[in-house]
TrEMBL record:
Alphabetical list of PANTHER family matching this protein: ADENOSINE/GUANOSINE DIPHOSPHATASE, NUCLEOSIDE-DIPHOSPHATASE MIG-23
Region annotation (Disordered) ranges: 671-713
Gene3D superfamilies assigned: 3.30.420.40, Exopolyphosphatase. Domain 2
Organism listed in the record: Aspergillus mulundensis
One Gene Ontology cellular component annotation held by this UniProt entry: Golgi apparatus
Superkingdom of origin: Eukaryota
Protein name: Nucleoside diphosphatase
Keywords attached to this entry: ATP-binding, Hydrolase, Membrane, Nucleotide-binding, Transmembrane, Transmembrane helix
GO biological-process terms attached to the record: CTP metabolic process; UDP catabolic process
Family according to the record: Belongs to the GDA1/CD39 NTPase family.
Signal peptide: none
InterPro entries (alphabetical): GDA1_CD39_NTPase
UniProt GO MF annotations: ATP binding; GDP phosphatase activity; ribonucleoside triphosphate phosphatase activity; UDP phosphatase activity
Residues noted as binding ATP in the record, renumbered to the chain: 182-186
Amino acid sequence: MGKWHYGIVLDAGSSGTRVHVYRWLDNAIALKESGKHNLKSLPEIKTKADWVKKIHPGVSTFADRPEEIGPEHLAELLDFAREIVPDDAIKETPIFMLATAGMRLVPDVKQKLLLDHVCSYARENYDFALPDCDVHIQVIPGVTEGLYGWVATNYLLGSFDSPGNHDHGKDHHTYGFLDMGGASAQIAFAPNATESEKHANDLTLLRLRNIDGSTQEHRVFVTSWLEFGVREARRRYLSALQTALGADNVKEFPDPCLPAGLRTTLDGKPLEGAETEQYLLGTGKFDECLRGTYPLLDKDAPCEDQPCLLHGIHVPAIDFDVNHFVGISEYWHTTHEVFEMGHTDKAYDFNTYQHRVEEFCSQDWESIERGISEHKWGKKLDQEKAYEVCFKASWIINVLHDGIGVPRVGLEPMSTSGVNGTKEVLEHGKHKGYLDAFQAVNKIDSTEVSWTLGKMVLYAASQVPVESAEALPVGFGSNVAGVPSDFQYPSTGLLPNLEPLHGDSWEDALFEGGSSRRIPGIILFVLIVFLALFFLCGRTRRLKVYHKINNLFSCGRPGGSRLIQQRKRKASAPIKPSFFGQSTPSYERILEEGAQDIELAGSDSSRSSYDYVSDTDTAAFLPPKRTPSWGQGSPARLHFNQDNSSSATVGLGISAPPGISTIDRSGLVVRTESRDHLTPIALGPTTNGRRSRAPSPSRSHSHRSPSATPLHD
């Protein structure tokens, strides 16, 4: 490996996929260049603006056509990454595709199939390091996304490496993190000491490693609100609007969150042609829009674990004296891409921001269209964004101040509406460590704030070598000492007591001499083959194997032969496992050499219904005498002593056909089906409702009971 290590993260969001390429110095080189005073710092992750590429749509759109995601979506992103990573570093460069809220809404079966196609395509067409698909290609929960964002924010602000420069008081030096996408919203922060102790079980333990091998631990609260992103909130808002006005009888729906005079379809598309369908009509009343979006916070939901913020979800109390939040994604786009353009003040405060939103959203649509064509609000604002921006602004304000409880800095009205009421407090915010309660950002020190950076910080920190085998690993899990049972490692190669597979196939892992899994693997392989052959060989062969094994173990027992053992047992044989035949009790008799010497007793009421009797006792029931192939003498016969009304019947009430001996069976094994296997088919008038079974003078091995079909049939 050269001087630089590389890593690739694909952020598979709801609207598109963005690939990020990162690099960091080899740890040995980093130690030499860091100097004595910077050893207690994390690996320095680098990226460039042109090392990021985003394409549309999101991966979730391929849920019904997973075979197309490779050539139509991934190829463009992975080709882009391959052009950045040097050729000699490609095989050592890990690749991660982590999907977020859009994929969380896809059913599990489709989700798994889609991820499998992603992994197989990447492995077959690219040489990036991809040792384990379950770890490197996955849908991450919202709390994991929020934790990665918290790591990225504090990493870029420098609070990990220089905690003394970010002292917020009360022994607190980290920043809170807020993220809002299209489908979900996240919050992550380290509570103050009192709340951390009170809600210790609700916190996540995060462990990082500095370049000198030392570790640092943080305890963070993280939660996520699915359907609280701007797109899902808009959907819920329109659903409530239609319900309130009666969707079946109303054609025009007044929408205070749209500029006055604007008409759109119910899903926000431009209204074209004759107005024969239902549509939204903008009224441009921002105050009403704020009141209409407030119920979406679901503040009245039951809270089982106090305190709660939104939707009845528990969140420890936030101490805004020490908890200062940084917001990204929609918090930045909605507050800055439109409402700071054309103004000299860039800092956010409630009064200034809300005034600018009201000014924009109260205009009629024709005025806004002219302003867009003149780039009055910058080149990034187009008509599609102008449709949505008023709703997004109202939702952001409600979530921040009524939902999370961020103080309304600058609430007092100023004499001039364009003046920032807290300019002196917030001026040069980044140089003061972002000490305001909330600050929306897009980049810090020219690096975009993205949760993907947090993932790579964890991975790079985990690659720092340690001298002691007892060093605790890098990752996160439940807030307990040591390594919790749910601890998540940044990569498969970091799992304890696991060696990477040798080669690319399971044959190498089983048979290559250097693998520690060789012997257990071979044993497992042989066992699987044995079980497969066992179930494929058929019931008859399984039965023969069973009896051979039974005979083998019988020979060593007192009494010598198996026949003598039979005399000492009860008349009824033990129940055999269902693998060897019927699952119900079956009965057997063994005719062997010397059978004529066995003393057979008659039946009485205290004995089993199935008894052995002598030849003389059963002479009337015997067929013409035959010479058995296993020896001389008269073979023993089995008499079913059952109280039947006719001598033409045998045990269990089974009638024998006229003119045929009741019992006439030869062979080494004779089995009688139980009542459970007797079906009421082919019943004749003489069977008394029971099924007759014709005698079989020479029962072959291919004979099967209709209700005891072999497994392979």
